[in-house]
Amino acid sequence: MLASIATFAIEGVDSREVTVEVDVRAGLPGFAVVGLPDAAVREARQRVRAALLNSGLEFPQKRITANLAPAHVRKAGPSFDLALAVGVLAASGQLLPEELRATAVCGEISLSGALRPVHGAVAIAFGAREAGFARLIVPSENAGEASLVEGIEVLGAPTLERMVDVVRGVWTPPPPDPPAASEVAIPGLDMADVRGQLDARRALEIAAAGGHNLLMVGPPGAGKTMLARRLPGILPPPAFEEALEITRVQSVAGLGDGRLATRRPFRAPHHMISASGLVGGGGTPRPGEITLAHCGVLFLDELAEFSRRALEALRQPLEEGRVVVTRGQRSIVFPADTMLVGACNNCPCGRPQEECECRPSDKERYARRLSAPLLDRIDLICQLDPVPQLSDAAERAESSAEVRRRVVAARERQQERFAGTRVFANAGMDARLTQRHVMLGEEAARRLHAGERRGWLTARGQDRVLRLARTIADLGGRERIDSADVDEALGYRLSVPALAAA
After folding, report:
1. What confidence score (pLDDT) does residue 495 get?
2. Considering the chain, what is the average pLDDT of its residues?
């Protein structure tokens, strides 16, 4: 007898439908799995057999052949266990075909018959909904996460036996509880701890308000890392669509806790990371750090110490907001809409200018590690001075809550402006949206063109200045951009040619 059941395989951060066809017929007992399975899928034969017997169900002593279609797509991981078990039950007559109509399943099975959670439940639920399935059966631990996707009924089962009861309609699992929201502020990390560095604080606020890339340059101990790690505390909470995207990425990577993300991710990889670790890839493509920071912050401390190959690999993702990895004549797309925040020293030794012993050639070699095309994709470059004496910086600094109120107000203006689009912040505008929403007066336009005529402002740089000026105006609560906004935006671009040519 032949039976089939639908499940899903993870591709990037999306899912792809896989049909599990199971044929049970007379012959020497055996269980073969075909369709490009990896070792974990082939080992499912032993898990399925033991789970069925330990759950009081029958494992047919016949010739069993399971095909995972489409056969040209490699299948990996234990998430096919449940579909194979259901296929065997249906092909042996223990479940009826009409009971499985419009149903997809996904999950790992233990030898006792207990269902174990799998990675990518949100992506699987998205795939099941888009494929037109009415319900999705997953392990109980994945039910809350998968139920975040609207438009499909998600049923969680703790064991294989209970899953059979769900299919037969004799037991209905309780609906999963929606995840409770948590506080956005990061305990113990507050902007009030930062003394001095008013320019850097202002640059951080602008970057947070518009989602712009930021580079801080200064001597060691000036507060670059301290400022960057306080950035999540002034960022607005993610919108529901953004939170769902964050949750999907974390679920696929195995980093989620099964609840809807309420904080934007903050990733800070070590400078020895490889290019594939930073942007994604590998033999079996996996998301890189820039994808794990999707809708959040990617902080690269000691930016100039990263390998040239890793830094240059960031150029296209920063421009397009995605990473495309091609393996085996197929392309996998990873989202990479993130804020890049970098920090580096002025020279290799990092000592104050009066104590620096670096030769000019050393400084030139150090500066060349950051190429002009990479710097051109950074909206703000801020120079930090050495830390002032405590007596000189004893004034009270604004807290993260105070700064965050202005950032949230600016983001709300942007959400109203971009309603109906997939853009959430000014940094995500393309050329068409920039022309529509950035209108300059005569004086502001004259100052922008003056910077272009000097030769250090590229066409991409001019576009980024416009977006930056739009954010500065939003922070000030103004719809019209004036010349002061353009001047401030240009001031953060003045360092681009100096760093590239140093």
Report:
1. 54
2. 88
